[in-house]
Every structure is written in structure tokens, then in C-alpha cells.
Design a protein that fits this description.
This protein is mainly beta. The protein has helices spanning about 10-15, 30-35, 80-85, 270, and strands at about 65-75, 85-100, 105-120, 130, 135-150, 155-170, 175-195, 195-210, 220-235, 255-265, 280-290, 295-305, 305-320, 325-340, 350-360, 365-380, 390-405. The strands form two sheets. It has an eight-stranded antiparallel barrel with strand order 1-2-3-5-6-7-8-9. The chain has an eight-stranded antiparallel barrel with strand order 10-11-12-13-14-15-16-17. The radius of gyration is 25 Å and the shape is globular.
Length: about 425
């Protein structure tokens, strides 16, 4: 099952709402007559200074770091169909405003200029080759980044960025002057000075005009590299954390984000007849750990082949907690569907149930390495059957956990 950007415009408006963040709230200016009547503090007075006016969306005020990012990207067509029929190179330069949060999540709003050069093979018979160049194009959009490893001078991240782009002529040839550009990939950032980071990544890119699998939408897919320079500044005006969220979760003694990769090989004889039923998935989860060893996780996952995604809870019991070690048993259940979970499509839904045991070892003050072995079962599809229906397997899991204290914990007497 291949993901198509045919439904991209349905989800893009939700991302565009993030652009409100760029419009800072106007400062409340006191009338001149009030300013003249305001009492003046006497010299040497110890009266506290008035609080600074805080601007922007409330959620972005919690960012511990703000940054400007400049990057250059180069994409070549993917091997196979795109290399043979969409032999087009795409390059761009991008400027972005970034808000980084202590949990590792990051939001960006960007603007870009791009160019493309190459040829497109038409679907007519006989096939014809035509130029597919665009001397200049512009675009804008949001990006979401997950820094799953954050050390003093190094960060490792995954990135997802949907953009709207406009080109001088129809691109690719036979298409339209507007398109959607989706980029996803991973990379690393290295701090080279107090306020500067150098970043490099490897990304996959998809260009489509949202009209589906029709001749007027000669979609293009490529992959390539990106190189970035980031100028970061610390946010020195963070609010004190306030009690919020589900009350029971405020009793957690430890919060965490977990990034994991799982591999399942089929167990039953019928499953083993089809080697395509080996399942790989990648998962990111929010974790609440309690002092009695119980733990709740809520996460989302992606299964790349065939492309599916989903979300669901996990319950874990750390039955042994000793210093740098934990030994646990857990179980989880995710609802998965074809393509991206947030794109409405007429695809079957499956329940992916897993359970197993493993161990955690603390490798750093705030990082744990986890290994586990789990059994997995997918149940029959709702809205039809698919390749994931009625499948059984088992395999290993590897995870990296980033922990932090609970800033919203209840005050105990």
C-alpha cells in the first residue's frame, strides 16, 4: 500500500493554524494620561519591577529555546519509476523560526525558495520525453521535529514537514503551478558554539498537486540530504509550571518520552508462507511512571511495509527496580489503518495487540536503553480485510527513553 498525497489538502489546514504563532499579541499600551499619573518609584526603592509583557501563543511561551534556522536541501529522484520517468533534481533554501521544548519536541514555521531541473517521460504511446524545469519557486509551511536524543552538544531527531509550493510554470511538466511538498527524514545536530548548531539530515520528499492518480498529477518522489545552521537563544521568561492535565497523572514520579523500533517474524505456518508478513514498526510514546512500578504509555506508531499507522495505550509493570536497572512486563493495543492515521481513507482498521517482557538500563542521567521480546497478534479488519488481518508473530524491541521529573506533581504535605 503506497501513501499518496491525494488527501494532503484535507490535513494541511490544521498545520497552517500553527502560523498564528508568528503573529505576536499586541502589547497593552497604557494611555498617556495614565502614564503621567503613574506613581514613580523613589530612587533606591526595593519595589519589584513590573512583570514583562509576554507575547505569542501561550503554548509557545513554554519553549525553552527559540531559534532561527537556515538550511539548504538537495533531492534526486528515487530509484525505479521516478528515476526512469521523473528524472528531476530539486534543490531549495529554507528559513525557519523554531520553538524547542525541553521534552524534545519542536515546532517550526518556514519559508523556502526552490528550483528544479530535469525531464519527464509522458504516459502517452509512444512515450515522449519533455523538459520539466522550474527556474524559481516559493513555498511555506510548518514542520514538526522529535529530538529523541538530547545531550549537551548532540541531538538526534526525526522530522516531518508539509509545505505548499508555487512555481513559475507547471511542475512537473503536465502538472500545475501549485503543489504540496511533503518531506520526512532524520538527522543529527552538533553544537559548535554557545548559540550555534550545525545540522545534517537525510530526507524523503514527495510532490503532488492533490488531484489523485490522474494524468494532470505527475507526482514526483525523491530523496536527498540537508545541511543547516541554527542560531538558538534560551527563553529566560518561562512561566512556573501549573497543575494541569489528568489528576491521576500528576501523581507520576517520572515522566518520559520513548522512541522504539520493533521487529516481528511470523509464528504460524500459514504466515511463514508469505515473507512479506514480517512486521517492522517505529513508535513514539508519552510515559507516566509511578513509584509502585506501574507505568502508563500513550503512543503512535508507523508500519512502513505496507504503509500503515496507528495509536494506542500500553500498560507496564516494572516488577524489579534497582538503581540503574529495571525489569518489566507490559502489554499494549494499537488501532492501525492503511496510510497515515489522520488522513480519512476507505481503508480497513486492525487491532494490533502485543505483550512481552524486557529490561531497562540507565545509560545517562536522563536516558535509559530498553530491550524486550514481545508476542504480537493482529485481529481481523474493520471495514474489510487486508494484509495485516489475522496475523501472529514474535520478535525483539529496542527503545531509547528520555526521562524528566513531573513538573505538575501534586504538592504533598
Amino acid at each position: 500500500m503506497k501513501f499518496s498525497c491525494g488527501h494532503f489538502s484535507r490535513i494541511f489546514p490544521s498545520f497552517v493554524l500553527c502560523a498564528i504563532a508568528c503573529a505576536p499579541a499586541q502589547a497593552q499600551i497604557q494611555p498617556a494620561e495614565d502614564q503621567t499619573q503613574a506613581p514613580q518609584a523613589a530612587p533606591g526603592s526595593s519595589s519589584p519591577a513590573p512583570p514583562a509583557v509576554r507575547r505569542g501563543l501561550p503554548i509557545l511561551r513554554d519553549a525553552d529555546e527559540r531559534a532561527w534556522v537556515v538550511d539548504v536541501e538537495y533531492f534526486a529522484p528515487q530509484p525505479g519509476f521516478d528515476r526512469l520517468n521523473r528524472d528531476i533534481d530539486v534543490s531549495d533554501i529554507r528559513l525557519a523560526r523554531a520553538w524547542h521544548f525541553s521534552s524534545g519536541w519542536e515546532c517550526e514555521l518556514d519559508a523556502m525558495a526552490l528550483r528544479a531541473s530535469g525531464t519527464r517521460t509522458t504516459g502517452a504511446s509512444p512515450a515522449a520525453i519533455e523538459r520539466s524545469d522550474t527556474p524559481i519557486g516559493v513555498g511555506f509551511g510548518p514542520a514538526v521535529r522529535w529530538n529523541f536524543l538530547q545531550l549537551d552538544r548532540v541531538r538526534l531527531f526525526g522530522n516531518l514537514a508539509p509545505n505548499v509550493i508555487f512555481t513559475e510554470n507547471n511542475f512537473p511538466a503536465g502538472g500545475t503551478k501549485y503543489n504540496f511538498l511533503l518531506r520526512a527524514g532524520a538527522g543529527a545536530a552538533f553544537r559548535i558554539a554557545d548559540a550555534y548548531w550545525l545540522e545534517a539530515g537525510f530526507f524523503w520528499a514527495h510532490i503532488s498537486n492533490d488531484t489523485g492518480l490522474v494524468p494532470g498529477n505527475p507526482a514526483w518522489q525523491g530523496r536527498g540530504v540537508t545541511l543547516s545552521m541554527r542560531h538558538a537563544e534560551k527563553n529566560t521568561s518561562l512561566d512556573e509550571p501549573k497543575g494541569r492535565g489528568v489528576p491521576i497523572l500528576r501523581d507520576a514520579d517520572e515522566n518520559a518520552w520513548v522512541t522504539s523500533a520493533e521487529y516481528f517474524a511470523p509464528l504460524t505456518f500459514n504466515n511463514r508462507l508469505d515473507p512479506g508478513l514480517n512486521i517492522r514498526d517505529y513508535r513514539v510514546a508519552r510515559v507516566w511512571h509511578f513509584s509502585n512500578g506501574l507505568e502508563l504509555q500513550l503512543g503512535g506508531l508507523v508500519l512502513p511495509s505496507p504503509m500503515s499507522s496507528g495509536a494506542g495505550p500500553m500498560l507496564r509493570w516494572n516488577f524489579l527496580q534497582a538503581g540503574r536497572w529495571r525489569v518489566f512486563a507490559d502489554g499494549e493495543a494499537d488501532v492501525i489503518k492503511g496510510g497515515f492515521f489522520f488522513i480519512p481513507q476507505n481503508d480497513p482498521y486492525n487491532l494490533f495487540v502485543r505483550g512481552g517482557a524486557g529490561a531497562s538500563y540507565r545509560i545517562h542521567d536522563t536516558y535509559w536503553l530498553e530491550v524486550a521480546y514481545r508476542w504480537g497478534r493482529t485481529l481481523g479488519g474493520l471495514n474489510g480485510m487486508n494484509q495485516y488481518s489475522s496475523w501472529t508473530g514474535a520478535g525483539p524491541s529496542l527503545a531509547l527513553r528520555h526521562t524528566f521529573g513531573n513538573p505538575f506533581a501534586r504538592k504533598r504535605a
